[in-house]
Write a structure and sequence with these properties.
This protein has 93 residues and is mainly alpha-helical. 66% of the residues lie in helices and 0% in strands.
Length: 93
């Protein structure tokens, strides 16, 4: 349950960072995509390494954290789009 609450908060945070850079708020979905993708890859990695004490779930959480960090770095590195380009700007509220 805490994992879901964090994921909702994290996606909203990424969307607000993207909106500050005059980008679409859909960039928040990148957090969920990378979180779930990292969790699946971590689980598959943990399932193949049965020798360790961490287990498959530990690897899944580790993969999810790595995915979240990568998504945060990508959104944070987005350049600011100037509003005076003359092109129509799309904003999702």
């Amino acid at each position: 349950m805490l994992e879901i609450a964090f994921l909702v908060w994290f996606c909203k945070k990424l969307a607000s960072i993207a909106r500050e850079k005059n980008r679409n708020g859909i960039w928040g979905g990148l957090g969920a995509l990378f979180w779930i993708g990292g969790e699946i890859l971590g689980f598959m990695t943990g399932g193949t390494r049965a020798v360790t004490d961490m287990g498959a779930y530990g690897y899944a959480i580790l993969g999810a954290i790595v995915g979240a960090v990568i998504a945060y770095v990508i959104v944070k590195a987005l350049p600011v789009v100037p509003l005076d380009t003359g092109l129509p700007q799309m904003r999702v509220i």
